[in-house]
Structure formats: C-alpha cells, structure tokens
Design brief:
With 499 residues, the chain is of the alpha/beta class. The protein contains 16 helices and 21 strands. It has an eight-stranded parallel beta sheet. Strands 6-20-21 form a three-stranded mixed beta sheet, covered by helices on one side.
C-alpha cells in the first residue's frame, strides 16, 4: 500500500493539555489515545476528518486541527488530490465515495449577482413600521378569478402549501440522518409554519404527529411507501433526481439499516438500501403523469404533488414536460446540493449550477404561458438570506435548505457522512453518537436560523421598495451581474452592473 500522508494534523499544546481524555472519548474515529507509559495524549492523524469535535470540547483549548503542510512536487495537471485518489483506487479497486456537496472551485453565481435598491423615485419601505408579506403559497394557480352570478369568488384553488416564509427543509432521509436530527427538523418546521421533507426513507411513526408540516417522498426504491405514509403528509414529492448525483439512484449502507430504520424503510436490517437510477415505471412524461395522478387518486386529490429533478443541461425542457404532467410543484436541485453518499466523480462533475437552471426554467415556462401551472422550489447551496432572495428574484417561489439546516444543528462539514461516524449525532445511527444531538435544542437553533433569515429578507425587500414575496418573484430588474460573460448574463436574464 502506497503511503498517503494525513490530510490534517492535530496540534496539541503540551502546556495546556491536562490529559483529561475528553478528546479520546468524544472522537468516533479513534484519532486520540492516552499513552500510559509516556503519560500523554497521542493522535493517529490518518483517521482525522476535521470534524472539530475534540477542539470544541477541549476544556483547556489545547487542540486545533490544521491542514498538513505535506505536498507533492508541483504539477499544474496532477494535483496532490488527484494523485492520492489514484493511490486509493489502486489499493482498493473501488469507487470513491464522498458526502455533502460539490467542493470544487466552480463559479458560485449567487456571489456574482448584486441586489438593486430603491432611492428617491421608488422609495424604500421600512419593514419595522410597514407591512411586509413573506407568506408564500405553493401549488397551481388559476389563470383567472372566477365568480358566480352574484359576483362571489368561486373557491376553486387546487391544493396549496402555505409557508410563513419561503423556506423548506430539504429531503434528508431517516437512515442517512439520525432520529434526533429528523425530530429537530420536524419540530422546527411545525413551530415555524413551514415544511420539512422526509427524504426517501419513509416516516418514523413517532413523526406522524408532524404530518401537517411534512412532505413525504416517493423515490425509485419506494422505501417506506404505503397508503398511511402518503396520507400522513401535507404534500407528496416524487424524486426523479438529486443535485449531488444526477442520473443515478440512492444508496444507504447496510450498517445504517438498523432497528427503526429497517422497520421504517420496510427492508431487512443490515441490507443495503439501493434505489435504482430510474423509476422502473417511468420512462416518459406520460409515465410520470400516470404516477402523479395515481398519488393524487390515492390521497383524494387533497395534496399537491411535487416532482424533484436534478439541474442538468436540458432542465428547462424537462420542467416544461413536468408542468404538463399534472404536477403542482417542481423542485430543482443544483450540483452543489448535499448528499449522505455519492460517487465522488459524479458529485464533482455532473450537473449544472442551480442559478442557471432556475433562470432557464422560469423563462421557459413564462414563454410557454404555463408559469402559473406550477410553483418552483430550488435547492443546492442556499447559504444565506441573500441567496434566498436572489433565487426568488430569478423566479423561485421558495427554496429548500439542507446543508445550512445541518450546520445549524452543529454539522462542521467534515464530509464523512457516509462513514456513519458523525461526531455531532447528525449523520449516524450509532446510539452513543445520536444522543449527542439534543432535538429540542436542535429545533430551537433551526427556528433561530429561519427567523433571522426572514428578518433579513424583509430588510432587503424593504430596501428594494418591495413589500411581498409575490412581487419579488421573477423580478430580475432588481438584480445586476458582476464579472459575468454575455452568455451567463443571457441565461440568467439579468443586466450587468452599471447598465
């Protein structure tokens, strides 16, 4: 086996370290150990994933994790990472797996879009003293208001999801994340008046009580799908694709299929949960339409149906077909979207940025006169309230947040979710690790995050002279680009700053 130097080094201040062994007890990767002969703590840095659990809990601040100074001979073509990946595959003969979103240095278009602001002729609005509406409704909207012979409005609105603010917690399955993490998401969604998504792992019986704020997912593996499950949620999402791994299915290792995870997914314990790349009953828009209406029929046409797709090069044409399939909402997941596990090559090289996908889809649906037939929800690295507002201005009705929600729960983005050794109790099923996440505290932190974003959203909208999300949706005149090519500006449908 070729020696690969550790990516991270544990720096321990000998003057501060009191050998209390907290780091040893807290590290699920077994990096730290106490040497009785030497009477000091040692570290096996090859196992370190830079999760910072030891750093956060060290009582004397004796620890820090640093990037190792080890390097390969400089080569513009062969980076150190590329070389080490060849070494790993030459040793294992296996596919490289990674977690979370694409970390490569592709353009982040949110950072190249600036918000416009009102000044004199269109004065700003003070959100502290004037009404500011962040409430959002997701679902089909009628083309025109209909009235009866007495002039009363006919209530013929199809099923809608009502959100207090245009944010939802994105799909993260029970199994890929812990029971406590799911409870945190469910409680926070209920408290906030928004929704969380079960992901493709079914819904634990304990969480049926949060059904009014739950989106249940139907994926190709159909794990945990039955009539009670479909009836429990406020909406049903058909997962066709995922931003982190477009074109392939899902895979939850058997090590995570334990206890209630096994029962909820309705598969044997210890069995890998593998979702096929395609739904084996969907090979056309007509097939998709049949599933959409099968789900509506099964739930009495009382729930909106969402179709989730990955952002790919022909996403606008795909979305046009979905809008005509009978779906009420389209969810689009960009290539920076997170995942519990994905082949590294696919995560880092397949798909397109959500900003470009969203702009293309919104424009296509408008040109075809069917924009009101569906609502658009987008995800894939929504990092702040500014990203949220920029997404709305590009045409989104609401956004999914996943990684940001996990960060609020304590995630340190160490990207080792697939190992099942999450030191923060989030992406794990080990009871000793799961209990590290207090669901009550986790829910409160999520509530705090969304509340803070909503306050910022109101302030930014007020500065634009806009007092409702509905008025902001698709208002690209309030965006300007910086450092973008003519082709990028054309796809985004925005002008360059200064124009």
């Amino acid at each position: 086996m070729e020696w690969i130097y550790p990516e991270y080094e544990v720096v321990r201040n000998a003057d501060r370290c009191i050998a209390c062994r907290v780091c040893e007890r807290q590290c699920a990767n077994e990096v730290h150990r106490y040497d009785g002969d030497l009477k000091k703590m040692l570290a096996d840095e090859r196992k370190c994933v830079a999760c910072h659990r030891c750093v956060a809990l060290c009582p004397t601040q004796a620890l820090k994790i640093v990037k190792s100074g080890h390097t390969f001979r400089e080569n513009a073509n062969w980076s150190g990472q590329a070389i080490q990946e060849v070494y790993r595959q030459a040793t294992s003969g296996g596919v490289l797996l990674s977690s979370m979103g694409n970390p490569q240095r592709y353009p982040v278009y949110w950072d190249k879009l600036l918000l416009n602001a009102s000044q004199v002729t269109n004065p700003p609005i003070d959100p502290l003293r004037e009404p500011m509406e962040t409430k959002t409704f997701l679902g089909k909207k009628p083309a025109a208001v209909q009235r009866d012979e007495k002039g009363n409005i006919l209530p013929q609105l199809p099923p809608q999801l009502e959100l207090s603010t245009p944010i939802l917690f994105s799909a993260m399955s029970y199994g890929s994340i812990s029971y406590n993490a799911h409870q945190s998401l469910a409680q926070a969604a209920s408290a906030l008046g928004i929704y969380y998504n079960t992901g493709e792992g079914g819904l634990h019986r304990d969480f049926y009580q949060y059904g009014p704020n739950t989106i249940v997912q139907v994926a190709s593996g159909r794990f945990g799908v039955h009539k009670d499950y479909l009836s429990a949620g406020a909406a049903i999402e058909i997962k066709m694709g995922q931003g982190a791994k477009p074109g392939i299915g899902g895979h939850l290792p058997g090590a995570k299929i334990v206890g209630d995870v096994s029962r909820t997914r309705m598969i044997p314990a210890g069995t890998d949960a593998i979702s096929p790349a395609p739904h084996h009953d969907i090979y056309s828009i007509e097939d998709l339409r049949q599933l959409v209406f099968s789900l509506k029929e099964a739930t009495g046409y009382e729930k909106p149906v969402i179709v989730k797709i990955a952002a790919v090069h022909n996403v606008a044409a795909i979305a046009s077909g979905i809008a005509r399939s009978g779906a009420d909402i389209i969810a689009i997941d960009g290539f920076r979207g997170g995942t519990g596990a994905a082949p590294t090559r696919i995560r880092d090289n397949v798909g397109i940025p959500i900003e470009l996908a969203l702009a293309a889809v919104d424009q296509r649906l408008r040109e075809e006169g069917i924009r009101n037939e569906v609502s658009l929800v987008v995800g894939g690295s929504i990092r702040s309230s500014a990203d949220l507002l920029k997404a709305v201005l590009l045409g989104a009705d609401a956004v999914y947040i996943g990684t940001a929600a996990l960060l609020a729960l304590g995630c340190h983005l160490c990207r080792s979710c697939h190992s099942g050794k999450c030191n923060w109790g989030i992406a794990t099923q080990r009871p000793d690790l799961v209990k590290r996440l207090n669901p009550e505290l986790g829910a409160q932190r999520l509530v705090n995050l969304v509340t803070a974003w909503t306050h910022e959203l109101k302030e930014m909208m007020g500065g634009m002279g806009i007092n409702s999300i509905e008025a902001a949706r698709g208002n690209r005149l309030m965006l300007r680009g910086v450092g973008l090519s003519d082709a990028e500006l054309r796809v985004l449908g925005v002008k360059h700053a200064g124009e």
